[in-house]
Amino acid sequence: MKPLFKKRTIVTGGAGFIGSNYLNYAVKKYPRELFINVDLLTYAADVRNVTVGKSKNYVFEKADICDSAAMSAIFEKYTPTHVIHFAAESHVDQSIADPSVCIRTNVDGTNKLLQLARDHKVERFHLISTDEVYGSLTKDDPPRTEDSPFNPRNPYSASKVSAELLLRAYTQTYGLPGVITRSSNNYGPNQDATKLIPKFITNLLEGKKVPLYATGENIRDWLYVGDDVHAIDLVFRKGRNGETYNIGGGEEYTNLEVTRALLKSLRKTEKEVEYVADRPGHDFRYALSNKKIEKEFGWKPKVRFADGIKKTILFYKKRLGHV
To answer: Residues annotated as region Disordered (predicted)?
Structure first.
């Protein structure tokens, strides 16, 4: 353990999409804090995502959050003061194919972390959640607020609701200080290629068709990952204990509109689109209200979708050797 650091934060899933973007931001911004990246390096993670690997206030531990012995050893080694829990099985299609996978990581893994956080008297446990816990909206529904009811409609979103309720229970029962953030659909650098935007960019760069569900009319609220990271950090440091904060992008587009934006940017035509059978239980629309986080911290997303897409395409061009 590095004893010189008064604040020591375990970041689970730090080699994944949002977790790595958070570490690349926070490790540089807070050089007097230690960040312990705990990641199993599954399909959605990549050590190349972390660009601060040589920093003195960063360490990496390869471990499964569901492995109680391994995680207990990490807690004993570093005696963390804080936890930010990004690690999750987040692929909805995979959760539909085998619900046990996401339940193991998102429910059992979260519970094991909460037990360790409680036993080690962690000062704050920050759970990263999702807009999917609110379920599907119609076109006319207002964006969901933090007080809107849960309505999970697939195994992934149900597992995230379960994780949230577990944290709430640990806060109420054991006094574990905790906060929750629910983010809308993130996009940007470091996202694994199973998700819509990186998958479509990759396919188009490699001359393959892009598989679009049904007619592409499903609507998502898009948020650039850099904006999400800033909001997460604000809540992590200033959020009120026991509270939940929505982090929405405020830019709603259908999947077809997103696809057309990618086609235009990459100078492709709609001949590259292959319409495929819809996902079972495919939620029609997600949208979040940012009123609470804006009122408390003055946070608003800064990166417009058109600009974020340009940054994202450039990232994948470089990673795939097309620049």
So the answer is: 136-155
